[in-house]
Amino acid sequence: MISHLSGTLLSANDRFIVVDVGGVGYKVRVTVDTLQALRKTTDKKVSLWTHLVVREDALDLYGFQDENEIDFFEMLISVSGIGPKSALGIMNTAPIDHIKEAISNGDAGALTKVSGIGSKSAQKIILELREKVGGSGEGETGVGALREEHDAIEGLVAMGYTDREAREALKKVPGDIKGTSGRIKQALKQLGK
After folding, report:
1. pLDDT for 88-100, tens place per residue?
2. For the domain bounded by 4-64, which CATH number is listed?
3. In 10 A of CB 121, how many CB atoms?
4. Is 68-129 a CATH 3.40.50.300 domain?
5. Level-2 CATH architecture, domain 141-192
6. Tell me: the pLDDT tens digits for 140-160?
7. Could you tell me the pTM of the whole model?
8. How many CA atoms lie within 13 A of 164 on its CB side?
9. Within 13 Å and on the Cβ side, how many CA atoms surround 64?
10. How far, CA to CA in Å, does 175 sit from each of 170, 179, 187, 193?
């Protein structure tokens, strides 16, 4: 199995990158966060943790910046019915810590915002992963944070920003700023720079 790649970034599009490792170009599907981080760097050297998915008609590589991301990805695809593309979709919705808290608190609504994840799949993810992400299912911290994140993204998109611009701006907003309107105001300041 290919578990790590280090090489030169040849190209990057919206869904994958191509990494040259010893003269061989590897197509690696990545999260939006990883893609944005790679686009910001001036150094073309890339180092990714990878997960190889073997199918009848393809070998697909999925790449991540750190071991925490790949561990969470592998946890998601361990749930029957959740494939690697759905797992990436889930990981693109919000920071991993927010998703883990939503799972531990049983917030199926946050997971159904991903294309292809219905309420049954969301409940299955919660049922199978709640204990693995360290949640007892009590409390509303993660649920509220994830809902605020989604509401803020939807608000910024309604103002004419792209989903990607909204997510990138919200990641720069300090975590101590709570409330959807407060997060939107701070994100607008980031977008105005």
Report:
1. 988 888 788 888 8
2. 2.40.50.140
3. 20
4. no
5. Orthogonal Bundle (1.10)
6. 445 566 677 778 888 888 888
7. 0.70
8. 9
9. 21
10. 10, 11, 12, 19
